[in-house]
Write a structure and sequence with these properties.
CATH superfamily: Resolvase, N-terminal catalytic domain
Mean pLDDT: 89
Number of strands: 4
Shape: globular
Strand order of the largest sheet: 2-1-3-4
Oligomer: single chain
Structural class: alpha/beta
Low-confidence stretches: none
CATH architecture: 3-Layer(aba) Sandwich
Helix content: 25-40%
Strand content: 5-15%
Number of helices: 3
Radius of gyration: 13 Å
CATH topology: Rossmann fold
Distance between the termini: 23 Å
Largest sheet: 4 strands, parallel
Length: 111
């Protein structure tokens, strides 16, 4: 799932495309793209982020790609804490820009 928070629709579209390309280079499937237009709202109050959380909780997605850590966090430490929260639930949060490479997600191969 791609999550972009940007009020300018043209910029948001470009950023979402970069995120989709980031996913494609890692052979991750993008099942949905959420474009949020209200970066001034706290993360937990953004309707788009609530959609992401619901998809995660329902097991519909396991990887969330955002444009930059600042999209979802106040700084790199906060972003890393959010990544840790995702990992504790078996999910992955990555940013297409602004962070070192994240480890690849683990897939259960014992089906």
């Amino acid at each position: 799932m791609v999550y972009v928070c940007e009020p300018d629709a043209v910029v948001a579209g470009r950023r979402a495309e970069v995120c989709r390309t980031h996913a494609a280079h890692r052979t991750w499937w993008v099942v949905d793209t959420v474009i949020e237009e209200q970066p001034g709202l706290p993360l937990q109050e953004r309707p788009g982020w609530q959609r992401v959380r619901t998809a995660l909780a329902q097991g519909e997605v396991g990887i969330v790609i955002t444009w930059d850590p600042a999209t979802v966090a106040a700084g790199l430490e906060d972003f890393q804490a959010l990544q840790a929260s995702f990992r504790s639930r078996g999910a992955v949060l990555v940013a297409a820009t602004g962070t070192p490479e994240a480890p690849p997600p683990r897939h259960d191969t014992t089906a």
